[in-house]
Structures are given as structure tokens and as C-alpha cells.
Specification:
This protein is mostly helical and about 190 residues long. Among the domains are: about 1-50; about 105-160, no CATH class. The chain is built from six helices and four strands; from the N terminus they run ααββααααββ. It has helices spanning about 5-35, 35-50, 70-80, 110-120, 135-140, 140-160; strands spanning about 55-60, 65, 170-175, 185-190. The strands form two sheets. A two-stranded antiparallel sheet has the order 1-2. The protein has a two-stranded antiparallel ribbon with strand order 3-4. A hairpin with a 5-residue loop joins strand 1 and strand 2. Helix 4 packs across helix 6 (about 140-160). The chain starts with a helix and ends with a strand.
Length: about 190
């Protein structure tokens, strides 16, 4: 981006922010000018409502945190503090197959098996971290079968799982009946 483009962008951005601020100010002024208690309380309640689904959280200092970014940081710090850190040591698992069977013997050459597996997946519109849902995969199962076959074959041959496959979308869920919803310890991961 050139300096002129950046300058133009910054000016437009400042203008938009000012217009948004002016509009909010105008709306607030109209609520005050109406002099109706019901309108005032509806306006205040809309401003106080939480868009993230998680209400205000109490920080260690006792201050209530309402900013979504700060709440996310508090929950992240709590969950990483109570989670187990991967030490890289794999636990021992008893072998469930014959001694002559190895992971590099798994054959994904038949894309029909992949189509069958995708067909039996639970339909869901919930997206994974890459933005794909099961419904999306099911609609494209025939087009995806051969590339997935090649991908799975490569992964099993190399023995390395892509790092993106270790990511997940995590949602904090309040543990009902345990205490205050303002305490981060009263949330669990989903």
C-alpha cells in the first residue's frame, strides 16, 4: 500500500469513526430528550447486555470486566493454568493389532471408503478452525474423496500430523448451579 493510499485510508477511517460517534451521541440525546423513563431503561439495558454470551467477570482485583477481549484473556489464563502441559512423552498403549500390522500399511487408495466415512459423519453446520462444516464436506464428498485419499496416505506415510489439525474452537460454558457466573473458575471448556 502506498503512502498516499494509506493516508487516504486513515482519513476515511477517521471520518467513519467520527460519523459513528456522532450517530451514537445523537441516539443518546434523543433518548434523553424523550424524557420517558421506559425508553431510558431500555436503552441502558441494551448497552449493558453482553453480546458474547458471557456476562461480566470479576478480576482478581475485584473489578468487573465487561470488555470481550479482556474476558477472553481472563478465561484463557484460567484454562491454561488448570490444563495439563504436553511434556512430549507419549503414554504406553497396549497393542491392539497383530505385530505385523503398521500404520504405513493403511491404504487410503480406495476413495470409496472415504466417501463412505464422510457419508456417515454427523451433519452439522458448526465450522472447524479452518471454517469447514460437516455439511459442507458431505455436499462435496465425491470431489474431496481423491484429494483426501492422497493427503491421508501422505500423512500416514510420513508419520506427521499437520499442526492445524491440533487446533480447536473452544467455547467456555458456565457450570450451572456451581456459583457465580462472574467467577472464571465456574466455567468449563466445550
Amino acid at each position: 500500500m502506498s503512502k498516499e493510499d494509506r493516508s487516504l485510508y486513515d482519513k476515511q477511517s477517521a471520518l467513519v469513526k467520527k460519523l459513528i460517534y456522532d450517530r451514537e451521541k445523537q441516539v443518546e440525546q434523543s433518548v434523553v430528550n424523550k424524557a420517558k423513563l421506559g425508553s431510558f431503561y431500555r436503552f441502558v439495558n441494551r448497552k449493558l447486555s453482553c453480546k458474547s454470551g458471557i456476562g461480566p467477570l470479576k478480576a482478581d482485583s475485584g473489578k468487573l470486566v465487561v470488555d470481550d477481549t479482556e474476558k477472553a484473556e481472563m478465561l484463557n489464563n484460567y484454562f491454561t493454568g488448570v490444563s495439563t502441559v504436553d511434556d512430549g512423552i507419549l503414554p504406553h498403549f497396549a497393542r491392539r493389532v497383530d505385530d505385523n500390522v503398521f500404520s504405513n500399511h493403511v491404504d487410503f487408495a480406495f476413495s470409496d471408503n472415504i466417501v463412505k466415512m464422510i457419508t456417515h459423519m454427523k451433519s452439522s453446520n458448526t465450522a472447524d478452525p479452518q471454517g469447514f462444516s460437516n455439511s459442507f464436506l458431505k455436499r462435496l464428498k465425491f470431489a474431496l474423496a481423491r484429494p483426501l485419499s492422497a493427503l491421508y496416505t501422505h500423512i500416514f506415510t510420513s508419520g506427521k500430523i499437520p499442526s492445524d489439525w491440533r487446533l480447536a474452537n473452544v467455547t467456555p460454558v458456565f457450570k450451572k448451579g456451581v456459583g457465580l457466573s462472574s467467577n472464571v473458575a465456574n466455567y468449563r471448556l466445550l
